[in-house]
Amino acid sequence: MTAEPVSMTDVRELVDGALRAAVGRLDPRTYRVAAYHFGWTDKEGRPHKAPAGKALRPALALLSARAAVAPQESALPGAVAVELTHAFSLLHDDIMDGDRTRRHRPAAWTVFGEAPAILAGDALLALAGEVLLEAPGQGSARAARALAAATRRLIAGQALDMDFETQRRISLDECVSMASDKTAALLACSCSIGAVLDGASEALSGALEAFGADLGIAFQLADDLLGIWGDPAATGKPALSDLRSRKMSLPVVAALNSDTPEASQLADLYGRPARSGEELSEAELAETAALVEAAGGRAWAEMEAESRIQRAAEHLITAKLPEPVRTGFLHIADFVTSRDH
């Protein structure tokens, strides 16, 4: 049996109706914010087609049902729930990070205000649990518990990431641990939730979670590389965006811990805005990126992402998946590390 590559367009079409139906339960004010955030409407509530998200988490959820030899449609509640949870995190993150754009248009909080955006995020998170608990079958409660635990870790990772903003000395292990919670926890849950809904064994769901945990770190590494060297036309964010906000991303922390002359120069330059109160100039931002690369931060992040993908693939061997399903997971893993946005 030959494998078909995972089509994100097909995933969006399959999940979109169920996602819209779930969000449609919200009160009109909250729905307006959520619908704008998902790209379904403009700020006036009129139908609008904004650039679509990656649909990565729903795709993983649907594949995990096939890993349990169940029809992928059985994972729709899980696919919707992880996408709702992801949307909750983005609505809140944009406010906390001060990000004014999301998918090439103004972020929801800049259009509707901070409080409505926070409430919309809260409502989507509550809705995610509701959707899972309504799912047929014996695995719904187990899936809801798994998503709640992943969300708790996501929040812990975000809290740690915010703490990093006031620290200049962070170990690479601390930064990887933060990414494991903030990014990888929800991806790991997405990789197993369809199987969990179908009542899969702990051995299978555990192997799928382990795949997702390594995939999640690779995803964050790719995201951090794009945050420095990504093309603004593709990412929808300003050039060198993570350096502008002096984010302690994985490549930056790797460079700062490299014990090289460039690491000392980078530490001085990166800490200058905090000392002087003045933002770095465009020339200084370019110099910062060059120092991160010269200190080995870019090379380490690229090699670590490849290593994590290899480890993730080994977990799929342990899971003994049907070949088309294994290939589907590997197709997504390849997308994670080769994407430009």
CATH secondary-structure class: Mainly Alpha
Side-by-side strand order of the widest sheet: 1-2
Radius of gyration: 20 Å
Strand content: under 5%
Report the end-to-end length measured between terminal Cα atoms. Answer: 32 Å
Provide the succession of SSEs.
HHHHEEHHHHHHHHHHHHH
E-strand count = 2
Helical stretch tally: 17
Coarse structural class: mainly alpha
Average pLDDT figure:
94
Describe this structure in words.
By secondary structure, the protein is mostly helical. It is 72% helix and 1% strand. A two-stranded antiparallel sheet has the order 1-2. Helix 12 (250-256) packs across helix 15 (282-294). It has helices at 8-23, 28-38, 56-67, 76-97, 108-112, 114-133, 140-164, 172-197, 202-229, 232-235, 241-244, 250-256, 261-270, 272-276, 282-294, 297-319, 323-338, and strands at residues 101-102, 105-106. It is globular, with a radius of gyration of 20 Å.
Task: Name some characteristics of this structure.
single chain; 341 residues; mainly alpha; Farnesyl Diphosphate Synthase; 1% strand
SSE diagram, text form:
Blueprint: H1 8-23, H2 28-38, H3 56-67, H4 76-97, E1 101-102, E2 105-106, H5 108-112, H6 114-133, H7 140-164, H8 172-197, H9 202-229, H10 232-235, H11 241-244, H12 250-256, H13 261-270, H14 272-276, H15 282-294, H16 297-319, H17 323-338
Antiparallel strand pairs: 1-2
Helix pairs in contact: 1-3, 1-4, 2-6, 3-4, 3-8, 3-17, 4-6, 4-7, 4-8, 6-7, 7-8, 8-9, 9-16, 9-17, 12-15, 12-16, 13-15, 16-17
